[in-house]
Amino acid sequence: MSLQAIDVTPSAYTYPLLIKQLLHSARATAGDTEIVYRDQQRYTYTQFFERIGRLANALSGLGIGPGDTVAVMDWDSHRYLESFFAVPMMGAVLQTVNVRLSPEQILYTLNHARADIVFVNAEFIPMLAIIREQLETVKQFVLISDDGATMSSFKVPYAGEYEALLAAAPAHYDFPDFDENTRATTFYTTGTTGLPKGVYFSHRQLVLHTMAAAATLGAAAEQGRLHRNDVYMPITPMFHVHAWGLPYVATMLGLKQVYPGRYAPDTLLQFIASEGVTFSHCVPTILHMLLSSKAGEGVDLSRCKMIIGGAAFPKGLAAAALARGMDVFTGYGMSETCPLLTIAHVREAMPDFDAQAAERIKTGYSLPLVDLHTVDAEMLDVARDGKATGEIVVRAPWLTQGYLHNSAASEDLWEGGYLHAGDIGTIDPRGMLTVTDRLKDVIKTGGEWVSSLELESIISQHPAVNEVAVIGIKDDKWGERPLAMIVLRAGQTASPEDIKAHVLRFADEGHISKFAVPEQVRFVDNLARTSVGKLNKKAMREQLDG
User: Fold this and answer.
1) Cis bond leading into 339, ω under 30°?
2) DSSP for 252-279?
3) Residues that are catalytic
4) Strand partners, 475
């Protein structure tokens, strides 16, 4: 039987999936809704749309056109949000620069991405001055300043200051149609091995990711639901996977948005209170800082819905957030997946507080259009019984097609036609995914695999434990044994024997193997982290070896 092609009317608009299409609804219905930047800027969506046009005209006046790369070095701001839209909408590529990398790594990413122009916050001028002479493709710089700093204050030559350029540019820009598969954004992974790798996403991918995220969050009956009356604030850097794509979702829905600049717990808590923030997302480290802040003790967090991702969500931390009335739940993905793949909404009644925490720290249910599997070494599905573990592989229309200028790593990423997440996990009969560990972090001991993440979650429930990381150390008899590195709560004490006894109790109850009881427990002042707040277990191993 032959397939029949659809008749197309010659004059019909084909409607490419471009980022500009995300603005139609908000333009029509949210013109008076506010966008706020710290205590420095407050304007409406109507003004936001005008500023997008001004930014595109300013860039065009500086010679930037389709295919050129615009790099941004800024903290989370209204300017970043404007760049999220104006730059790709004019056919250029937005490079979001991880400002927490070393100068040498930032130099590498700018050269590797072949950036043409850099928007740079005055705070990062000293860093830029170090690397400026080694930049290979950057031709111009635009100064970003919160305090009125002028170009004459710096030795780096500038094409203009951001606000002055916008003020001089017309508000109307005719954003064109083009192929929806055109690259829109580029940024670099923050892995702990080797040089950062560039990932990239097209207009089509970002639009589909936005729609799937909005559908998933809006379909929740109540828990974790995102709706038009929410107030959104990112607490995941905008340079990292588009702040998990949520600024695109919030703008499409026309939500009030609050941008906090550089993160500080007291400031974030202030905005939650003063601006009525109800929806956000962050890594566990930031959530822990918010809950531990003295300034937050009097802040009502009961209206806060917060996606937790980027690292394992310890049960003890989830319980502490729930005790403050927060609606916290896991979101899962990676730089290469744009990033959202799953959300851990609670779909059924839980018998008690402990069960609630246990459900919310699981990895979650797949978003629409996500084809996710746990597989064995032959790429065959393992049982979906909540027990059998396998490597997580996935397909979705918004996954990066590869690493920028790195065909060998791209082939490894997509081996077998599925993207390899680098995690292992289980899927239960409901379809709920639970990541049990990173492939590189699972501890092979006594002929069994012990999940460092599960062990961390168990240790986090000890009342004296503030933070914990578990790594595997070599053992002549068992291959590897777990070592726990623990930061204690202020004013609390515990001994290694206390921690081991705590884990042994869970082992005796059948929750974890007895091989998981750590061989060593070390109490430390802090835990090594990456530039985006994830536990850096490679650095921890190197510290031990050193």
Assistant:
1) yes
2) HHT-EEEE-BS--HHHHHHHHHHS---E
3) 189, 336, 444, 449
4) 479
- Show the domains of the chain with their CATH numbers: 19-200 (3.40.50.12780), 264-368 (3.40.50.980), 443-545 (3.30.300.30)
Instruction: From residue 187, give the alpha-carbon distance in Å to each of 71, 79, 197.
Output: 9, 17, 8
The H or E element that residue 458 is part of is helix 452-459
pLDDT per 10-residue tile (average), the chain, 546 residues: 75 95 98 97 98 98 98 98 98 96 93 97 91 95 86 78 96 98 94 79 98 98 96 96 97 98 95 98 94 92 96 91 97 96 94 92 98 94 94 97 93 95 95 88 74 88 93 84 93 94 90 85 90 78 74
Full-model pTM: 0.85
Encoded tokens for 378:
């032959």
Give dist(CA 384, CA 431) in Å, integer.
Answer: 8
Quote the Cα angle for 76-211-221, to 5°: 95
Q: Which whole-number Å values give the CA distances from 54 to 87, 141, 145, 354, 437, in the listed order?
A: 11, 17, 18, 52, 47
Query: Which secondary-structure segment (H or E) carries 106?
Result: helix 103-113
